[in-house]
Design goal:
The protein is an alpha+beta fold. It is 29% helix and 30% strand. The structure holds coenzyme A.
Length: 164
Amino acid sequence: MTLRHATIKDLEILTYWDLQQHVVASDPNDDWNWQTELQRTPEWREQLIAEVDGKPVGFIQIIDPLKEDTKYWGDVAPDTRAIDIWIGEKENLGKGYGSVMMNLALGRCFTDSNIKAVLIDPLEANERAHKFYEKLGFKFVEMRVFGSDICRVYRLDRQDWMRQ
Ligand SMILES: CC(C)(COP(=O)(O)OP(=O)(O)OC[C@H]1O[C@@H](n2cnc3c(N)ncnc32)[C@H](O)[C@@H]1OP(=O)(O)O)[C@@H](O)C(=O)NCCC(=O)NCCS
């Protein structure tokens, strides 16, 4: 598997993945504005496509939550990263792709020695994602409401990542 930067050429597949039921269920209230955002490369964000044998299987975004435009994360510590992830096709769920994607993304985050922790905010109802993050070593921090979404915040500290 490789991660490569998403471009405007990925508009069609990202728009198609957005319609898949498991993707909608994990993020029902956000509009990712792909047409605009795929043509922007702010320094606080990486939007990445995961490919297996050259075929796109999923999307992962890494942001600096302190610098992100909308201040989605509110009052957040410096030197952290926040990640969003999904597998595109239903038939590719549960094949281990998500774990490989997250490990590649976490490696990317912690390569910067200033980064202290990575944050994740799955919906409270997304039990599959909770198990996924817990297995990767993330620790539950708190319940939090983001807009109209009730979410669990999880955090993976650098020390816990290094220990694995
Ligand atoms: C969350 C997601 C990225 C995980 O990727 P994945 O490739 O399906 O997960 P993996 O195959 O790497 O599985 C890793 C672990 O996740 C958990 N998991 C995976 N599928 C699961 C299922 N159907 N039910 C419960 N737990 C499951 C398990 O703990 C699993 O470990 P195991 O295989 O040893 O039991 C993927 O399920 C997904 O895209 N879901 C929809 C979008 C989403 O919820 N994104 C996260 C939003 S915060």
